[in-house]
Design a protein that fits this description.
The chain is mostly helical. It has 2 domains: about 100 residues; about 40 residues. It is about 95% helix and about 0% strand. It has 4 helices and no strands. α1 packs across α2. The termini are far apart.
Length: about 140
């Protein structure tokens, strides 16, 4: 029986059906190989496109995140300023109620004292200039 199978296979190899089958198998193998190569090339292109799109999405996400952080920071700054103003008003109210001068009042008073000091110094200098040495001598003698 094995001899019959071997004889059959040998006959099949040399027959037109066997040759046609080998040619078909060869064509199918080459087509499969070509399809595999094409798929690999196209897959490389697809991966490249996906990577580029991923980078675009990453940039957009970063920009959106930065915008959101900026907005949150701006809102937080506004809220802190509002709290600071309210706190300052309450502190000023308490200071006023207990009779302590505010920083603005002390500053105004300091400027006023400085202005008066300059006026006194100017008048003192003007008086000193009016007094001549002769008048000083007569006053000392008397």
């Amino acid at each position: 029986m094995i001899e019959n199978v071997n004889t059959f296979i040998s006959g099949l190899k040399t027959s037109e059906v066997g040759k046609a089958t080998r040619r078909s198998a060869n064509v199918i193998f080459k087509a499969n190989l070509e399809a595999w190569n094409t798929t690999r090339e196209e897959l490389g292109k697809v991966v490249g496109i996906v990577v580029k799109e991923g980078e675009k999405l990453t940039r957009k996400s970063r920009m959106n995140a930065e915008d959101m952080v900026g907005n949150v920071a701006e809102v937080a700054t506004d809220r802190v300023q509002t709290v600071e103003k309210a706190f300052q008003k309450r502190v000023n109210k308490v200071i006023h109620e207990i009779g302590l001068p505010t920083a603005a009042e002390v500053d105004r008073l300091s400027r006023r004292v400085e202005l008066l000091s300059k006026k006194v110094e100017a008048r003192t200098a003007a008086r000193a200039k009016r007094r001549t040495p002769a008048k000083r001598a007569t006053r000392r003698a008397a």
